[in-house]
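Quick review question:
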């Protein structure tokens, strides 16, 4: 999608990285941003990421063809209510939220009178936060999920998907319900488990931890408020994931007997092979990805 006027609401890691990526890939696009802190807007200007900045969202979306909401999950729906009445006729709004059911419902309601809403979730980021950690290459080769419903305008969906592909992403369509169910297991629960693993440790044990523990718990360093909102918004699916994990650990507990050593080896080997296949698939997908024309 060739965007000439883009509005980004929220200039954290993702919002800032989108701005930098657009500056690299869509040279004539004017970027207007909203952030509630003047310091953030000033930092974005210093990086050359934005052309205009406002501390009121309504001002930032006027005249924009595409609006991307890049705030924490709990702030997206209230922002949609604020900008819906002032969107340009035919404008398209999307988001980067890690949950989709509540956001898509709010977006379709708020934007229906003037524009269109399409849910998005670019699967890119890090445990670091803030505009100072933004990177123009953050999205290259990563997956972005779009979450259309029966109410989604096909042209708007195509524009949003083309935009993410322009930033170097591989786009996959999925329903909001399936998104939240599947992401609970591969994204939301893993963060909670990483936090639990850190929290359960004896201080003396933490002084002995090695690279494996640090690798496994890296994501526990993410912003608490952001992950609180994600876990609460998708709590029904996260709770189901917790129960599945409890059952899996219960099965492992039963294998911790000398006479079941062979079963334990098979259990560990099956997991190792699954992990190796996953690694190979991720590398293959990144190297072989070609955006659609």
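Suggested answer, residue by residue:
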């Amino acid at each position: 999608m060739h965007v000439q006027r883009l509005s980004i609401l929220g200039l954290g890691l993702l919002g800032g990285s989108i701005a930098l990526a657009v500056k690299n890939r869509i040279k004539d696009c004017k970027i207007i941003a909203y952030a509630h802190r003047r310091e953030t807007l000033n930092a974005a200007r210093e990086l050359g990421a934005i052309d205009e900045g406002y501390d009121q969202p309504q001002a930032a979306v006027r005249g924009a063809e595409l609006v991307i909401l890049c705030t924490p999950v709990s702030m997206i729906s209230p922002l949609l209510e604020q900008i819906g009445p002032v969107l340009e006729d035919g404008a398209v709004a999307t988001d980067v939220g890690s949950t989709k059911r509540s956001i898509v419902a709010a977006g379709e309601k708020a934007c229906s009178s003037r524009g269109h809403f399409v849910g998005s979730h670019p699967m890119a980021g890090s445990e670091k936060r803030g505009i100072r950690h933004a990177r123009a290459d953050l999205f290259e080769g990563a997956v972005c999920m779009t979450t259309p419903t029966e109410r989604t305008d096909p042209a708007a969906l195509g524009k949003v998907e083309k935009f993410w592909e322009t930033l170097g992403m591989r786009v996959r369509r999925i329903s909001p319900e399936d998104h939240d169910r599947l992401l609970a297991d591969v994204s939301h629960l893993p963060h909670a488990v990483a936090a639990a693993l850190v929290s359960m440790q004896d201080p003396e044990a933490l002084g002995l931890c090695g690279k494996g523990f640090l690798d496994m718990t890296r994501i526990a360093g993410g912003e608490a408020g952001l992950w609180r909102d994600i876990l609460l918004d998708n709590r029904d699916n996260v709770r189901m994931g917790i129960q599945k994990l409890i059952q899996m650990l219960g099965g492992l507990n039963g294998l911790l007997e000398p006479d079941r050593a062979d079963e334990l080896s098979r259990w560990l080997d099956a997991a190792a092979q699954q992990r190796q296949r996953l690694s190979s698939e991720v590398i293959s997908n990144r190297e072989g990805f070609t955006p659609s024309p």
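Why it works: Confidence is low (pLDDT under 50) at residues 287-293. The chain has two domains: 5-174, 179-255.
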